[in-house]
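To whoever is on call:

I kicked off a structure prediction for a single chain this morning and the downstream step that reads the tokens threw a length-mismatch warning. I double-checked the sequence; it's 195 residues and nothing unusual in it as far as I can see. Pasting both halves so you can look.
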Amino acid sequence: MKLPSIRTLRKYHRIARVGEIARRYFAMNAFDGVLTILGVLVGSFFGQVRDAGAVVTLGIAASFAMGVSGFYGAYMTEKAERSRSLAELEESTLSNLRDTDIGHASTYATIVVSLVDGFSPFAAAVIAVAPFFFGEAIPIETAFYAAFALAFTELFALGMYLGAISRDRMVLSGIKMVTAGLVCVAMGYALGATA
């Protein structure tokens, strides 16, 4: 099987309009990844988990789960939607488009969007839990505070990114994302206080 050239992939990218969809999936699922790992961190912190290895295990397990869920969910959804669109186009043109640039672009879009959807929450979560990779080299409390700082930095950066895309106020957009993280922490604190 001959692999497509970069030029061909760019053509598929343009035909299937992958850029906008991939940006949307990236931002949405990276946000999900950060908030989920923030929930894990808050639960571990207020649940008195003081073993860095345990936090890493919880964080990586959650990251893999989000990655697999994102990939398969997007793959099945995109494949269904793209197949439907292609079938409708074939009906209107009375021709088989499966082995054309349009058909190949549809397959390309399904794969690329699925990879973005799976990788973005995984990467966002792994970044936030990174301080615990140092084990006992740094105090566990410091690792928690560093992880919280990384998670909120990611949320702010995602907000800035979305602000740049929408050509809106980037800082305000970043603050909105951080607010969601603060709500997550407040809820975790409330749960920890009542436990």
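Update from on-call: the warning came from a stale cache, not from the record. Cleared it. Sanity check on the structure: The mean pLDDT is 90.
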